[in-house]
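Let's practice the habit of predicting before peeking. Look at the sequence and jot down your guess about where helices and strands might fall. Then scroll down.
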Amino acid sequence: MDSDKKIDDMSIQELLNLIKKDRILAIKLEEQINKLKNIVKEETVPTKSRKPIQLNSSEIIKEGNEDDDDIEFKNEVDYYYSLIDLVEDTSINIDSIMTNLPSKSKVNYSSIVLGIKLRLLKTIKEYKDMIQEEREEISNDFLRDIKKEIVAIQTKIDMIGQVENGKTVNNVIEPERNNLFFSLTSNGNITAIDDIVKDVPKEAYGDFKLLFNSIIDGTFKGVKRFSGNYYYSFMAEVIYHEARVIFDRVGKNDYVILGAFLKKTTTGKSYKANLLSDVNTYLLYKENIVNNLDNEDFRNQNHKYEETLFSILDGNKEKSKQYRKGEE
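Done guessing? Here is the structure:
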């Protein structure tokens, strides 16, 4: 496939070849693509000349017919789409796009990137529908703003294609690893380690180790952003089996770990209370963390926290005992 092609110039088969999902998802995507390919190229078409096409926001994968893999895939697309969507029009370039896409080492990288493109195309389609259906009510200034936004979205799609094709600017490449920083409790303990040592059975330590490593290497296992509650909207989580790690992205390659929990407790009052407590404590110190991201001593201290975390997850009983006694 020619990587320089725009997504609206690709054949349906070329798009579907990027998807390594099951047959049901392929059918849903093919339906979506058929509709989008017939619409996105149209700049202006009289409203009466065609029947309006309704696209449900969950049409790529319908609720109620999802297995765990489909849910995980949809959550991952949603997370990375939200990062790309937040890139300001004046800041669109190879670097800003590449740093907000999944790592190319992620197994389903191509599938997620295609999902992002489809979401962007759907946004273009919605803008054009609005222009066609409400043209008489739209002011010229607002129309000009909408067209600028459409151009910006198309530019993002083009840039994503260039990243896929390996293009970089000023030798910008994916970082070897992301940096972990840790939120502390009110008494100075490491929140995530407190959560694990106090509440997580040792049988689950391997799952948490996988999740922390996925943040470090940029693959973000089962990543999902918090939605539906504005108070938590800045946070995201990585998920594997019942394990989940909550984090906040505070720099291009910098992530603060807020806490670590087991999924089976998320519906209980204790989980919600603990999460709210962790968030409130973190927000008190977030500004200080952000202001010290470039401080070498601060980075070294957090790297020591990371070493302690992985030592405990690796089953180092002595480290665990030391931490319990407050010697770390």
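How did you do? The two ends are 54 Å apart (CA to CA).
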